[in-house]
Amino acid sequence: MRNKIIILIILLGVFSMCKSNLDPVKVDLIANFLKDVKDPKTSFNTVIDKHLCVGSAKDRKASREALIMLLTPFRARLKNNSDNFRNSIDTYSSLPNSEKNINMDSNTENNTYCFKDNKGNKTFILIENGKIASFTVLRKGIRGVFLVFCG
Q1: How far is the C-alpha of 43 from the C-alpha of 74, rounded, in Å?
Q2: What is the pLDDT of residue 106?
Q3: Secondary structure (H, E, C), 70-98
Q4: Which of 42, 71, 129, 139 has its Cα between 20 and 30 A from that of 29?
């Protein structure tokens, strides 16, 4: 019995180390964003105002229109996902190197998270100044760059 308890403690310690580099504030921001995007009762304008970083005043209208076009298929993709988003969020830096295919510097990497939906599709999310700066990666060949709407 004692050996089983020791093994359980070791396993819990190993599991907690795997997720220990997650910033709980950023994970909450991402999980709440995903929850609001999924909820058809929450307007896209509310999602944008509450969670997303939008450019300067002169670009705001065009940015909102583009964000709504990006949020529409994202909502459809999240439709059949469970609401427990926190368990599906991890840091970009914890991904295997074979899955790291976005051009970025180390500061950006520290603020990038990966959400895996129930079908295994990955969404990379960039956080800047307490807001989501991007949830869209544009690909050119095998590498990608974030599409950022912040000013």
Answers
A1: 13
A2: 79
A3: HHHHHHHHHCCCCCCHHHHEEEHHHCCHH
A4: 139
For position 148, what pLDDT does the model report? Answer: 86
Contact 132, 29 (CB under 8 A): yes
Average pLDDT value over all residues in the chain: 85
Contact 128, 53 (CB under 8 A): yes
> Please, what is the end-to-end C-alpha distance for the chain in angstroms?
59
Distance CA 115, CA 98 (A): 17
Which pTM does this prediction carry?
0.82
Give the tens place of pLDDT for each residue, 98-144.
888 888 887 888 999 999 998 889 999 999 999 999 999 998 888 88
Structure-token pair, residue 3? 């050996």
Query: What pLDDT band is residue 147 in, cutting at 50, 70 and 90?
Result: confident
In this structure, what token pair is assigned to residue 94?
């914890």
